[in-house]
């Protein structure tokens, strides 16, 4: 008898059991017509999981909830398979990485992603802490997979399945290339896993998120859908009908809402510019010597003062910048949150001074003549800075632009503690 899994078709927690089933050759089928917020709130469902959460696995001996427990159950449902390792220490390590994937990776991706999707309150310091904790965890994972193809031993184990499903939510929804490139071995590990045939069968073609979902506008927090009372004589849903598995679509693995059409960014509607932002970013990145003559000259050759504008910024509360790494992290967080403007902006942020308090000053190039409204609305750091449009007819201001682009030191008479680039 097939095991029946209650969950929607795009739930990454359900994928853990489905991929496990592929590896050991047992049949796990998704229940038919599952509707998030409805099917999981019926009295029958609440008997299986009192929290009304998915996934739940129906077995001949009763239901099991919690996706890791379900995946373990499926993995153990066939004796002598390698998903659980072959020695006590392998078993210990597999459990270790399962907990790590859940508590250090998944929990922090969730704290970053869900508030941005309107589930729970969006609080910038909470987000910052989640991103910092996630980076710490990815850093540790990166070191481990530098010299290990799999988390434990020499083949895919349950730890790889659970880790990959958790990373899948991050990679497909919020961890853009610019975020993950700091962890190249995690990238390699993830892409290797999702391209294994048993993963691919369930996940389909995986695509990395191209942007971080914007901060929700200040509208009421989304509530879980209520269970609609059913008309007495309405025929009961055939809860146990099952459907064949289909590869997942890349969409929100949590609530499975219909995707809303993305409104066009007003900056895309501006008259075309002769300046190609990516060309400038490439020139900046590829110029290793003779920066003034190559990159700076190239910048002004390309610069289109009608299609773009330049802005100086200065942190309003420099006197608070008394600890070097806290100041640098603050700027790092700002650049992270600017991810949503990557198509429309380039920036340099300098942390200046030999002694605290450090000064934070920056230069930004934005598409259009104003600082884009969506950036002001969605990146709370903007209001922590004083902004002044660069007057390019003033040679002194132009020279200041040059010095900021090239990390000129000393800058305004002081050494640089750090220089970060947003590109
Ligand atoms: N720790 C649980 C998490 C389950 C969970 O949060 N499920 C979400 C969907 S991915 C859910 O059912 N939410 C509905 C609700 O909270 O009522 C697991 O791994 O199974």
Characterise this structure:
The protein is an alpha+beta fold and 423 residues long. It has 2 domains: 1-262, Up-down Bundle (Glutathione S-transferase Yfyf (Class Pi), Chain A, domain 2), CATH 1.20.1050; 269-422, Translation elongation factor EF1B, gamma chain, conserved domain (Alpha-Beta Plaits). Helix content is 41%, strand content 13%. It is built from 14 helices and 10 strands. The chain has helices spanning 12-24, 43-48, 67-76, 88-116, 124-146, 158-173, 177-180, 184-194, 197-203, 277-286, 291-302, 324-337, 373-378, 395-405, and strands at residues 3-6, 28-31, 56-59, 62-65, 242-243, 308-315, 345-352, 359-367, 385-389, 416-422. A 5-stranded mixed beta sheet has the order 4-3-1-2-5, covered by helices on one side. A hairpin with a 6-residue loop joins β7 (345-352) and β8. α1 runs parallel beside α3 (67-76), α4 (88-116) packs parallel to α6 and α5 packs across α8. Mean pLDDT is 90; it is low at 219-240 and 249-253. The protein binds glutathione. Glutathione is lined by residues 11, 13, 40, 52-55, 66-67, 224, 254.
């Amino acid at each position: 008898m097939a095991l029946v899994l209650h969950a929607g078709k795009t739930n990454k927690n359900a994928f853990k059991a489905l991929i496990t089933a592929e590896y050991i050759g047992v049949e796990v089928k998704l229940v038919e017509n599952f509707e998030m917020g409805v099917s999981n709130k019926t009295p029958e469902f609440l008997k299986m999981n009192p929290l009304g959460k998915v996934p739940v696995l129906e077995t001949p001996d009763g239901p099991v909830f919690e996706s890791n427990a379900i995946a373990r159950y499926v993995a153990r449902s066939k004796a002598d398979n390698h998903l659980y390792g072959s020695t006590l220490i392998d078993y210990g390590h597999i459990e270790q990485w399962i907990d790590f994937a859940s508590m250090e990776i998944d929990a922090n991706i969730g704290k970053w992603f869900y508030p941005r999707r309107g589930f729970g309150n969006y609080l910038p310091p909470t987000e910052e802490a989640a991103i910092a904790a996630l980076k710490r965890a990815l850093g540790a994972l990166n070191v481990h997979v530098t010299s290990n193809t799999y988390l434990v031993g020499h083949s895919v184990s349950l730890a790889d399945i659970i880790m990959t499903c958790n990373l899948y939510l991050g990679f497909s929804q919020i961890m853009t290339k610019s975020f993950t490139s700091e962890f190249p071995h995690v990238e390699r590990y993830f892409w290797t896993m999702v391209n294994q045939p048993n993963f691919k069968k369930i996940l389909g073609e995986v695509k990395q998120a191209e942007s971080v979902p914007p901060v929700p506008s200040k509208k009421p927090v989304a509530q879980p859908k209520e269970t609609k009372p059913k008309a007495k004589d309405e025929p009961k849903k055939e809860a146990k009908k099952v459907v064949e598995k289909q590869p997942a679509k890349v969409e929100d693995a949590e609530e499975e809402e219909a995707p809303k059409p993305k409104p066009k960014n007003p900056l895309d509607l501006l008259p075309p510019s002769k300046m190609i932002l990516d060309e400038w970013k490439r020139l900046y990145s590829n110029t290793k010597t003779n920066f003034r003559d190559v990159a700076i000259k190239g910048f002004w050759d390309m610069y289109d003062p009608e299609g773009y504008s330049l802005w100086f910024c200065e942190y309003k509360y420099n006197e608070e910048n008394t600890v070097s790494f806290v100041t640098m992290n603050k700027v790092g967080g700002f650049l992270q949150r600017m991810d949503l403007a990557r198509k429309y902006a380039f920036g340099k942020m300098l942390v200046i001074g030999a002694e605290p308090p450090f000064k934070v000053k920056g230069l930004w190039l934005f598409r259009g003549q104003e600082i884009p409204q969506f950036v002001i609305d969605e990146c709370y750091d903007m209001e922590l800075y004083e902004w002044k449009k660069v007057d390019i007819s003033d040679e002194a201001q132009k020279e200041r632009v040059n010095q900021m682009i090239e990390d000129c030191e000393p800058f305004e008479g002081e050494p640089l503690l750090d220089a970060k680039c947003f590109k």
